[in-house]
């Protein structure tokens, strides 16, 4: 695979899966815009991208704020002269039974996991349509394919991302823009560690491992290869597809 001189925005890449994707892109020669609400984390990722051989730009961006998203895209194009790839990776959740959720939690989960990617996608499309080139990879979740106890609204958002991916792929095919979705299974990230704290959390993690045929959780680098492939020209005839990277947890 080759991403030499491709320019990519990766949201939520200040850590976790997003950081793994950013470093992979850097190793493949990309110029990576590391966009994250946590600016210090974004700067750390940029240093890793550059050590891997790429170029990086850290931006502190809240994807739930459409004005900030538009500024992120404007800055990326202004800095590197173009934009080839968008990876909608940023996400957030807490694990809690639906009947205990508050409406405020629903709003936050929907804003980050559904509206944010919609804002980001709309912000890049005019540029990609004009160039008749673009790759969009949405990070969904197997929670959006089969559900996940304790993550009702998150699962709804990720199911929405899968449907959104297919629809934008259909609408953008005439402009030679590829739109695909990667759905990770349970992955070792700071967010997962935050969600499953304590003795009960440890039991949940062990149950997750037992449910995966490979008997382990994914690591960020397990996800990054699939994203890099779909963002590359080797996947130029693939669009509207959803790929689970879950160690066999879901098979379809």
Structural write-up:
The chain has 252 residues and is α/β, with parallel strands linked by helices. It has a single domain, classed as 3-Layer(aba) Sandwich (Rossmann fold). The chain has nine helices and seven strands, in the order βαβαβαβαβααβαααβ. Helix 1 packs parallel to helix 2 (39-51), helix 1 crosses helix 9 and helix 3 runs parallel beside helix 4 (103-131). The longest helix is centred in the middle third of the chain and has 29 residues, at 103-131.
List keywords for this structure.
252 residues, alpha/beta, Rossmann fold, seven-stranded parallel beta sheet, 7 strands, 50% helix
Our count of domains comes out at: 1
**CATH homologous superfamily label:** NAD(P)-binding Rossmann-like Domain
Fraction of residues in H or I helices:
40-55%
What's the CATH C level?
A: Alpha Beta
Distance between the termini: 26 Å
Overall pLDDT score: 91
Elements, N to C (H/E): EHEHEHEHEHHEHHHE
The description of the largest β-sheet is:
7 strands, parallel
CATH architecture: 3-Layer(aba) Sandwich
Q: Work out the strand percent.
A: 15-25%
Q: Judging from the principal axes of the Cα atoms, what is the shape? A: globular
The structural class is alpha/beta
Regions with little confidence, pLDDT below 50 for 5+ residues: none
CATH topology: Rossmann fold
List the total number of helices.
9
**Number of beta-strand segments:** 7
């Amino acid at each position: 695979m080759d991403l030499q001189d491709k320019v990519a925005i990766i949201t939520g890449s200040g850590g976790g899966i997003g950081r793994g994707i950013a470093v992979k892109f850097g190793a493949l020669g990309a110029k990576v815009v590391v966009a994250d609400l946590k600016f210090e984390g974004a700067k750390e990722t940029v240093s890793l991208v550059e050590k891997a051989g790429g170029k990086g730009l850290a931006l502190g961006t809240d994807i739930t704020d459409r004005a900030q998203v538009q500024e992120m895209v404007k800055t990326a194009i202004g800095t590197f002269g173009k934009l080839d790839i968008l990876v909608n990776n940023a996400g957030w959740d807490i694990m809690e039974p639906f009947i205990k959720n508050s409406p405020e939690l629903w709003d936050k989960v929907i804003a980050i996991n559904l509206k944010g990617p919609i804002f980001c996608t709309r912000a890049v499309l005019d540029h990609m349509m004009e160039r008749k080139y673009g790759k969009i990879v949405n990070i969904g979740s197997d929670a959006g394919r089969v559900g996940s106890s304790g993550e009702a609204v998150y699962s709804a958002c990720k199911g929405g991302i899968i449907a959104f991916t297919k629809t934008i792929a259909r609408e953008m095919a005439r402009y030679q823009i590829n739109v695909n979705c990667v759905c990770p299974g349970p992955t070792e990230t700071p967010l997962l560690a935050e969600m499953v704290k304590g003795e009960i959390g440890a039991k949940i993690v062990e149950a997750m491992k037992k449910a995966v045929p490979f008997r382990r959780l994914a690591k960020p680098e397990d996800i990054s290869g699939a994203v890099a492939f779909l963002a590359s020209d080797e996947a130029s005839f693939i669009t509207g597809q959803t790929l689970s990277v879950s160690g066999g947890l879901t098979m379809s």
